Automatic annotation (TrEMBL):
PANTHER family (UniProt xref): 40S RIBOSOMAL PROTEIN S11 FAMILY MEMBER, SMALL RIBOSOMAL SUBUNIT PROTEIN US17C
Record bears the keyword Transit peptide: yes
Name of the featured protein: 30S ribosomal protein S17, chloroplastic
Keywords for this protein: Ribonucleoprotein, Ribosomal protein, Transit peptide
Gene3D superfamilies: Nucleic acid-binding proteins
Gene Ontology biological-process entries: translation
GO molecular-function terms, A-Z: structural constituent of ribosome
Recorded family membership: Belongs to the universal ribosomal protein uS17 family.
Alphabetized PROSITE patterns for the sequence: RIBOSOMAL_S17
Biased composition (Low complexity): 129-138
Length: 160
């Protein structure tokens, strides 16, 4: 029985149930770290918007298209850049995309188990390259060598 009796000078909050440190069990402890975290949560979070570009490979399902995205990646052993393909299921609410269309995928909330992207028409590549040019036809305005020779011959004929 003497083993079950504890000395009277030994008192811990675990044995007596009293909180010696003065903190209530039901309140959250406050510290400078938790205050800094609460201030950080009040600020808006910045999320990177993930967009991919690929070609529609299957458009038979209702409101869903299968898009194949191709990227270049180095081979793990030989370090040569190889094409790697991956298929994504994308949401197409109006069923506007057909097989072979180029689409841009935007990350959205999950719609189903496999659909987390929205298919958007990709901007045409000719408009991307003509941002600085005044020509809308895609030409840079430098004539070919054969065209330059024709201009010189016409000018020589006009001077006699």
């Amino acid at each position: 029985m003497w083993l079950l009796q504890l000395p009277s000078n030994l008192s811990t909050p675990f044995l007596t149930g009293n909180n010696v440190s003065g903190l209530n069990r039901l309140t959250k402890p406050t510290s400078t770290l938790s205050q800094a975290q609460s201030q950080a949560h009040s600020l808006p979070s910045i999320k990177a918007m993930k967009t991919l570009e690929g070609r529609v490979t299957c458009a038979t399902n209702d409101k869903t298209v299968a898009v194949e995205v191709t990227r270049l990646a180095p081979h793990p052993k030989y370090k040569k850049r190889i094409r790697m393909k991956k298929k994504y299921q994308a949401h197409d609410p109006e069923n506007v995309f057909k097989k072979g269309d180029i689409v841009q995928l935007q990350k959205i909330r999950p719609i189903s188990k496999t659909k987390t992207f929205l298919a958007v028409p990709a901007p045409s590549r000719s408009t991307k390259s003509n941002n600085g040019n005044g020509n809308s036809s895609g030409e840079i305005g430098i004539p070919f060598q054969s065209q330059q020779e024709e201009v010189v011959m016409v000018e020589e004929e006009a001077q006699p």
